From TrEMBL:
Residues 14-155 form the HTH marR-type domain. SUPFAM superfamilies: Winged helix' DNA-binding domain. Pfam families: MarR. One of its GO terms (biological process) is response to stress. It comes from Nocardia terrae. SMART domains: HTH_MARR. Keywords: DNA-binding, Transcription, Transcription regulation. The keyword Transcription applies. This is MarR family transcriptional regulator. InterPro entries: HTH_MarR-typ, MarR/SlyA-like, WH-like_DNA-bd_sf, WH_DNA-bd_sf.
Amino acid sequence: MANDGLHTEFEHADESPGLLLWQVTNRWQAAQRAALAPFDLTHVQFVLLAALTWLTGRSGGDPVTQRDVADQAATDPMMTSQVLRALEQKGLLERRDHPTDKRAKSLIPTESGAALVNRAIVAVEACDRDFFSPLGERTGRFTAALRQLRDRDHG
């Protein structure tokens, strides 16, 4: 069986937006891993702890649930549950009984969890500024394009 190459619509790999996105994402994730290493947080742990802390600060005292955190972060509910459990074991968040839904738990960052994520976000945002700096004034348009892709209907 002869191999006559890859049957692609692109003459060069650098013309494929999907491949480029994958390559850039890998480099960005590596930069974020390095930025978060001093805080002993994986990137997904950071994202979920940041989402919880953000939601808690804006909740007006209303309980924040695991579903709220997963929705805010756009993460898979099962993976979210596992990561939140790991954050709880690290003492960075607490699960409490939900005041109105006996099946649900409300989540709250511990004092040390909120302090840690607020220190870590400084490093994460500095990493982003550095990583995306080659875009210069185009960063806003790039961010808008990413939102457009994220928010489009995939149904």
